[in-house]
Amino acid sequence: MKILVGYKRVVDYNVRIQVKSDGSGVVTDGVKLSANPFDDIALEEALRLREKGVAEEVIVVGIGPADLTAHLRNGLAMGANRAIHVVTTDAVQPLTAARVFLKLIEKEQPGLFIVGKQAIDDDANQTGQMLAALWDRPQATFAGKIDVSIESGATGKVTVTREVDAGLEVIEAELPAVITTDLRLNEPRFIKLPDIMKAKSKPIDSIEFASLGVEAHDHLKTTHYAAPAKRSKGVMVKDAAELVAVLKQKGLL
Amino acid sequence: MSERETMEYDVIVVGAGPAGLSFAIRLKQLKPEITVCVIEKASTIGAQILSGAVIEPQPLDALLPGWRDNPPPICVPAGEDEFWLLSKEGGRKLPVPPGMRNHGNFIVSLGALCAWLAPQAEALGVDVFPGFAAADTIFNQDGSVAGVSIGDMGVAKDGSHKTGYTQGIDIKAKVTVLAEGARGSLTKQLIKRFELDKGKDPQGYSIGIKELWQLPAGRGTSGKIVHSFGWPADSHTYGGSFIYHLDGDRVALGYVSGLDYSDPDYKPWEAFQQWKNHPSLKPLLDGGEILSAGARAIVTGGYQSLPNVEMPGALLIGDTAGLLNVPKVKGTHQAIKSGMLAAEHLVANDLKSAGFNAKLRASDVMAELKKVRNIKPAFKKGLWFGLMNAAWETVLNGASPWTLKNKADWSSLHKLGAQEEPKRDYVQRTLAPRDRLAGVYFAATEHDEDQPIHLHVSDTSICVTQCAEEYGNPCTRFCPASVYEIVDDAAGKRLQINAANCVHCKTCDIKDPYQIINWVTPEGGSGPNYQNM
Fold first, then answer.
1. B83 has a pLDDT exceeding 60
2. DSSP bridge pairs for A178
3. Pick from B129, B154, B291: which is nearest to A190 by CB?
4. In what order do the strands lie in the sheet with B91-94?
5. Helix A37-51 vs helix A68-78: angle between axes, to the nearest 10 degrees?
6. pTM score, whole prediction
7. Does A29 touch chain B (CB under 8 A)?
8. In a 3-state reduction of DSSP, which class is residue B100?
9. Are B224 and B245 in contact (CB under 8 A)?
10. Is some CB atom of chain A closer than 8 A to the CB atom of B442?
């Protein structure tokens, strides 16, 4: 069985996000970019399934500009067998991403498509679900535990423990399926230096976005970006009675 | 423990700063078949580089002809220079000293410049590995340097192995090039082991604390360069500031305090914040916001403190050797030149380090340091003596028949109450950040909390007894990131090390009066994540 892993590059979680002064977006020049942490978890899980003998091949897929290859190389250094790079300089919205992934699925015929439950840049939490609908296959979102039993090739069952508001939910799905990963599924491995060298000779398939025949108009329109309002200065109150009075005055009690 | 995995290169470079990257680029230009790798502890290239920085472009012209057509992302031609002597309420504009005239130079972000150099090195076949910290040096049987060990990943605070534990590897090379920047942790060990400082003055340092600000639109003067001295420093503390106007209403500003200060109560971070509130500067910053902030030790010992820069199997370049030019407040051009010189030496000498020390000392890198050798040490005798001496040395172009001595920074602290310390005439501050912790936020520093503390204090019993009495725990004041705290809880008074706050400036390793703090590399990728610093 093959596993496809959606592997997005985002502004690193350590970076303090700055909104551009004209409100058209966030500053990405000179800003550290790295893998979406949820996608790192997705890749780690795929690698573990391969190590367990459930899968034979793990393929990382990314959509983005030419320099995305450095990011995909990191995925290869972590252990993916090969990468697919869909080349575009445009920003990609969730539905477009799902359509691209569907095209790659049609070509590769994987048993599992694993991707982070959301990316930490737009936090959309949509791509996995949309992909499952387009593909017309089962989805198991917010996975905290994954067990796969293979019957033959890419057919079999996957048992997923989901992290939901009420606690944990265990569901079973027929393969092939889409899984989106949550934070507690695993802890991604450290990349080893010799593996960075090995990754240099692993193949990255480059596909022009236009050649996929995917409709790419913008489904979402961003009106503007703004930083959260600054907290205004507090007031000091003498005692509990005054605090209650102030809260009442503000209509909060 | 299992046998460590090993990789082999002809040359390994420790540190992807301007020296290390220039070295690697030059080496590949001269002899492409030499294999070379550069390892860097920061998670990405440039993330732990902090500098002013105004640079002299000539060494870049020599290294990368044509770089001006493809300049680094922040590269503003130097405009007008100003030089001020500040008092608390005002100041006086002075003639700009010759070393500080910047016509023809460029204001850059050194971090962004390194991030721009790295892919050019990679294009020549250099393997650049960010996120890997050189934890130790390894040696051959004959005692020569054999390479470095990369630190293990996934070690818990108590030393046990966490689930993701990954053993580091050893990288062996015919020659190891140390380009760690000021007070490199491996360089420190090697200087001791090979007695590289024998017959030399102790090395001297300053601490530079810097912030990058975004000003309201239209307030910046792209290219303007302002240096000052005087307030808030007293006349016996070496202190000075810089304001560099970048493009897009961004300004880089910083305050440098000589670590040879003597008042145990002195707080370099507070001095920086005080200076920001000076009436000449506050109106510039008011209403702006901080983009990034951090601190780094600067090497200032110069000519008389320069160690032997070669040892069997290894050599030192850039600031880890100690090549910064203090009166010019510049080290990048020296770093690049020394890197290129080292590459040329190794290629001409079959990768043997022997002879590099003589070569460097005969070069214009050293001639430049010799000229200015007496300027910084004279400030130890007070500001006015220092200035007059600086004028004298400048007129003579360094031809004085004497060389002033440097003393070790850690030895310069007065004991508490030993003598009257200057009264610091400080103001009520209003500009951000409020305190050091609020400032550290802008360094985006990150260390996995569950890893061994990378600040080794060999004897913590001194802290609450001898040091508390003699110096009042200066570590709690000289650290710009509030790493050191004396806490008093159920377990009694003790030193608490908040290692996760560390911005890797190395000040504690330098200034601790008992020399019991040893800064070692944390897990690779840990530490500050500076943006455009």
1. yes
2. A113, A139
3. B154
4. B91-94, B81-86, B225-230, B239-245, B250-258, B205-214, B289-299
5. 40
6. 0.93
7. yes
8. helix
9. yes
10. yes
